[in-house]
Amino acid sequence: MDDSSLFCRSSNHEEEADVLQAMHLASISSHPFTLKVTVDLGLLEMIAKAADTHPVMSIPTVTVTVAVTSSSSLRHLNAMGSSQQNDSSSNHEEEADILQAMHLASISSLPFTLKVVVDLGLLEIIAKAADTPPGTVSIADIVSKLPTNNPNAPSIVDRMLKLLAAHSILTCNQITGQDGLTQRSYGLSSVGKYFLQNKDGVSFVPMLRILLEKYIVECWKFLKDVTLEGGFSCKKAFGKHLFELLADDDDMSECFNRQMSIETTLTMNQVLKNYKGFEGVSQVVDVGGGVGTNLKLIVSKHPQIRGINFDLPQVIKDAVPCPGVEHIAGDMFMEIPKAEVIFLKSVLHDWGDDQCLKLLKVCHDALPKNGKIVSVEAITPEVPETDIISKTILEIDIVLFHVLPGAKERTKQEFEALAKQAGFSSLKIVCRAYSHWVMEICKAV
């Protein structure tokens, strides 16, 4: 399976598209910070100079389509002569590039505005209005439900919601009041529902908050320094890595755990829908399985499996008893329980290559001759793609670089190299679950 097929997405999965778009919006704060550091380091100038003297070093360009504003404009363009069309095409391409650059330079306003809208509970107010005709709510009605006497609040709220509507998080319509004046009314889009404070379902609010809280935002200030001097940003900013910081912050720890639970349930439901490799398996060890959420879902779908949830003692102590699952504490870098299948979900991306190799060798020793690892990880393309899956993975990759030493998302080739060094005979990508892929790493051919 090559990179082009890895990043193809079925066009008929509207819900999947909404989930991926919400994930992208929640993690988009990586863009402006990374762009600023790239500019500060002078990397774009280096690439531009290299492109003039060594064309092979030039980077591929991205074509941006400029939408024609009306059908009459389209007819006018089609009526132009060929020379005019060529000139127009060239002008439109340059205009598109300028507009895209302007958009990238100002995009930092989007994630921070979205977070404020979420924190104010505006999406909940709009969502409740969807239950009654006409399914949208006016700015006046929205602001009336806020604890404010600020006369400027309607204007501020309207400006924030217009931005979210421009990014398809909300819908927007103009309505005419009894006084004859027009005003905007807003509704929740299919993407926007994933930013509701949904306690029981899928919500990317915890992810959004984590990425915009001080622990991550402060780290961006040190990206230039660590690029030139080494180290990692979280250590420079706070003297600790992220997990140590969370241990001292109950609120953020709860938010992080909530996000992990949501992501696990969301991804695992899709894994179990698409992956058939657990059929006929009798025993699975989930290494780094946390409190057992993965195995609970696996065993519920495949009740013939005896599951062993394996993690550190401080994690296992909080694991909830589950039929068909045994919780065992230990150190995955030393020894793990033997089983015909070892399950690793989002474990390898937390560690550098040396630690991953050590872990894979321990897994190799614990497997029978015909055993395999089933690993669920994000996979980055060798050459960056512009699809939403690739963007989201690369946004998270740069955050991992900040908060955990050695942590990173990997390409298929990097996973294959690690597997080979650990003694495995093959690595096969089987299927995708949102922004993750299921890989089978087999001990025997």
From TrEMBL:
InterPro entries from the UniProt entry? COMT-like (IPR016461), COMT_C (IPR001077), COMT_dimerisation (IPR012967), SAM-dependent_MTases_sf (IPR029063), WH-like_DNA-bd_sf (IPR036388), WH_DNA-bd_sf (IPR036390)
* UniProtKB keywords: Methyltransferase, S-adenosyl-L-methionine, Transferase
Q: Which GO MF terms are attached to this record?
A: O-methyltransferase activity; protein dimerization activity
Domain O-methyltransferase C-terminal: from-to ranges? 220-425
Its BP terms in the Gene Ontology are: methylation
**Gene3D superfamilies tied to this protein:** Vaccinia Virus protein VP39 (3.40.50.150), Winged helix-like DNA-binding domain superfamily/Winged helix DNA-binding domain (1.10.10.10)
* Record-annotated O-methyltransferase dimerisation domain positions: 102-197
Pfam families, from UniProt? Dimerisation (PF08100), Methyltransf_2 (PF00891)
Q: Which PANTHER family match?
A: O-METHYLTRANSFERASE
Question: Could you tell me what this protein is called?
Answer: O-methyltransferase domain-containing protein
